Fold these 4 entries.
Entry 1:
Amino acid sequence: MKHAVFPSIGSIAQKAILWCDPGISVRDAAILMGKNKVSSVVIEMAGERHIFTVEDMLNYLHGGGAYDSFLSDFPIRRLNCIPEKEKLLVVLEHLESTGASHLGVVDAHDGLIGIVTRTDILSSIDPAILLERKKIGDMIIRTEPVMFTADWVLEDVMHHFRKAEDAIIVVQEGKPLGIVTTKDVFGLISSGADVSKPLAAYMATPVITTPRLASINEAMLQLKQYRIKRAIVVDEAGQLDGVISQSELISYAYGAWINILKNHSSELHELVDMLEEKARSLEHLSVTDVLTGLGNRRLLQIRMDEERERVRRYGASPFSLVMLDIDFFKRINDTHGHLVGDAVLKRLSAEISRSIRKVDTAVRWGGEEFAIMLSNTPTAAAAEFCNRLRASVERMELVNGIRLTISLGLSEYAPEEDDATLLERADRALYNAKKQGRNRVEVERSFKLSA
């Protein structure tokens, strides 16, 4: 199953919540947790949620507490809760700062929808985010492993079990022979079984071990695969080297994430900026005519769609579409060559760009033909613009003594018509301008819906 790098806490929380009456005994709470295969019960007292965990029970019994004590008489911890949409990093930070092993997960209405533990967090971590080259043996082992030989009596060493990750490693000549975990001890307590036998009677064997040279990734995968809470690290000769708990691995993962974010934040921001700039550049190229720098047909289509929606939604003034063509452009190419012809196209494009507003759109339609969409501009104002542009082009001074004139056709958008009809009317107006002598503006006013 593939996990998100930073999943929301609600997606990994245990949805099975075991609610409990504060009037039950510690023994009954232990039996309930054993039967339902959970590590905690939730109690509501004085309008607040509280939690009683396996670790709380072990610590209580270790301190001389009685099995028959009621939970209401026990100093039960208030259940800290976190919104279901919080990301894993936030929860890890909370666990690291408070030392808590369980957190409640609440929905938008503050309803308790789940419980999350360190085991849930470990299961959600994608090992690929950790350093592949970091070896498990290189990690600092904070505590010496608890080791006994198989003839020790369990009852005599039970005080070593206080946390869910605690375990006793049974060794023979320095090599792991078996293991007794908190889960094993909890099962014995909740069932009332005899705990006066030697460790050999209770230990699980063989022991799942982790080579000292294994990577952090491999150790994490091993804990996931076997659903265990600790890595029992051995050297090349199989001798017990140390124990690294699930919590230590989680802390390491959290630290690795934070270091990556801290050490590479500037590089990540720079990379994001580069990608965004690249995306903007590609988007610009996709709607730009390479020779003139004006837009292309795709850009005109996009802008016309936007303008049509503006007219439809707000009942605004219509837009106008202008088609223009350079008069006798073929003569320029034939007389002066295509390079000069390209220079003329660029010069005309610059003049068009100078003449239009920011809300207007000018594109090269093809060859020496251009199209201009005039936003929020009805026929009369559009005709004035066209004549100003025509006169401006006629006055331009070009290389090699070239003089330039343009013919323009204009049509105003009617709300009922489609793009093809609008373009056809503007093109027909351009044809009429050329037919009637060029260097002029013609308007195509008629538009009728088909029956």
Note: Residues 246-286 form the longest helix (41 residues).
Entry 2:
Amino acid sequence: MSESAVTPSRETQDLHVLEAQPLLSPIELKRNLPMSDASAETVIQSRNSIKKMLINKDPRMLLIVGPCSIHDEKGAIEYARRLKALSDEVSDKLLVVMRVYFEKPRTTTGWKGLINDPHIDGSLDIAYGLHKGREILSQITEIGMPTATEFLDPIIPQYISDLISWAAIGARTTESQTHREMASGLSMPVGFKNNTDGNLEVAFNALQSARASHSFLGIDHDGRTAIYKTSGNRWGHIILRGGGGKCNYDPESIQQAMEGLKKADLPVSVMIDCSHANSGKKIENQEIVWKDSIHQRIAGNSAIIGLMLESNIYEGNQKITKDLSQLKYGVSITDACVNWETTETLVRWAHEQFNG
């Protein structure tokens, strides 16, 4: 065969690709930052507890609490230590898991999270971001604090999922076949959020899909392209986050979700997101959603298995500046969060209600 028969006369691929940088494999990162025995114990115990909650064999309530996103290692570890001490106080009635979110979906553009842009300067040092993300997760789980995250890029789980106790699939990706397939192979319970317009059917479909077996492309621990075949993940549930300008944590909306789950022959387990559309994107409203949801649970609705709260050391959020030294410590650079004092008050209040 002539050379002209196998070599195209003009380029037809990578026309808009500026560069392709080799990345270390998942197994290389794990060799550099291996999981400790303490971290493994934290992950295994908390995953098992969450699974029991989903089948009503653990009467406690699950609380996913923490920053909207992690951008500062020091702040993340300080928050984790505070949360660990608080979680120990209430562990008889509540299982507290820390939000450690490294990926942020964007409607258009913006900072995409610590893994994608760890230096917050547009340098996009993903290799360092993966290292730093795994390092932070290792520190948090070693002190006995379970972690939760949202998986956005389907390759990322190979690098950090062994350190995660609970995962979320966001409102913008619940409808994605790629993320449903990914969830079917994840080793931890997964919550699927309803769509940004409030549609629940998409989340029901996602739950059914994730419970099924799938075959799809991914990378293995050595970084090679591989065909993955999964058994399906039956530890899924829906997350009600409101949408379309309306909340959906009220009794009528929760009843509608429960009926939809029953109709789809899915486990009737519901988590309430106290932020986003449920709070009207106003941080002071998170407390209203929190307390109302706790009251419904105590009144007998055991289908409400958990709550999500966006919380940080200090209240509110801040814009990213060119001079990063001007960023305020312990303040979110993505969505606004309630402060630590409010977090303590709400968690202790919930504990008191369950003991009342």
Note: The beta strands are 61-66, 94-99, 147-150, 166-169, 190-193, 215-219, 225-229, 236-240, 270-273, 304-310.
Entry 3:
Amino acid sequence: MPLCGRPRPAQLGLYGAAVGRKSELARLLVETAISGVSQAVPAEERDYVQAIRAASDADAKIAIYAAAMRDIAGRLAPVLSIIQQAAPAEPDLAAVWHQIAERRAANMRLFVADLAAAAPLRVHPDAAADIIWATNAPELYQLLVSQRGWSPGRYEHFLVDTWTRLLLAD
């Protein structure tokens, strides 16, 4: 690359080949934001997922997951916001967004199954999974923390309180 000025087209081509398509870059950014490390980590290998599965009571499972969501949402919300805004003009990005949403929904069903094994649920498992899916969305984090000025800790407490009250039977 030249020391000053814009890169030449051949250099851009090499850069583009190294990075890949926008959708691949977006997926990589999302995966690293979720994992919190420089590479994607499958859900079942993440520390918080293993801690949730090891916890014996529902309250502990909820607290572990809420703490993880506080950290993940803080990293993920800005990335997903950009993807959402670009998705209408970029079909590949829209597909990535849809895949992420579906994967999140599937992961919520797994979490609810684990939660239900530890304590009776107040609502049907499908409804519980949808409630968690909606309330742990990075968009809600962005609304409450970025726009309304909540602290990440307050957001985490909100998740624990909401999930405990709505999901667990008395």
Note: The helical segments are 9-19, 22-35, 47-54, 58-86, 91-118, 125-135, 138-147, 152-167.
Entry 4:
Amino acid sequence: MTEIAATGLVVRRGGRAIVQNATLRAQSGELVAVIGANGAGKSTLLASLAGLLAPDSGTILIDGRAISAFTRVELARRRAYLPQNPRCEWPISVERLIALGLTPTLPVFGDLPPAFETRITEMLMQWDLLPQREQAATTLSGGELTRAMLARALVGDPGILIADEPISGLDPRHALDTLKRLHDLAKAGKLVIAALHDLTLAARYATRLVVIDRGRVVTEGRPGEILTPSLLREVFEVEGNITGADRTIAVDYIAPLDRDAASAERRIER
């Protein structure tokens, strides 16, 4: 069992608190979707959980051990991180791109060490990339590159995957395919934490939602329990409806929030 526990996280940038007193706990078998409006602090929170950004205060523990106590190699073995809008700038083969996730000491030129071949082939098959094995990574489509980067992140078999907007820019088929794969990873015992903007897909595939607003975790729980029209108004500033349950949940946005009407309604309630 693997667990990440973050308590009282504060992260400041440019003198402003981007993450404020955030607390989050997640463990193996979960696909935790972090949702919130643009600028809410999702990416900063995920970078901190991945150990890439040190918080100004608060604690982050992996299985009871402070994340700051891990060496870079130890941390790389325990968790993988997929940044938002991943890119590959060099025309290396897809096979070698995936292999980079195994160790930072791979040779720059020449054949891959034989010990890595089996694992890399497994990942190529798992992520439907066998036909692209020798293809230059710079020529992949957006969906193919996302799958290749996920394969690179997971080739070392880490217990934790942290992904920042893994379906950003993907067409519907690739978005559905990617989230199903992340769901299956969690079902197989991994811990997956992903920032998502598509609330319908987040609700259908995540085991739990964590809602962040202006740097604060304002609520969390099962999608069907916490996704409400009130939450859409308060966090996303839109009017909307939520229909269905579990894998059929759908979030329908109707209109931007009428702030004047909302303020008047609150005054009447008081």
Note: The chain has ten helices and twelve strands.
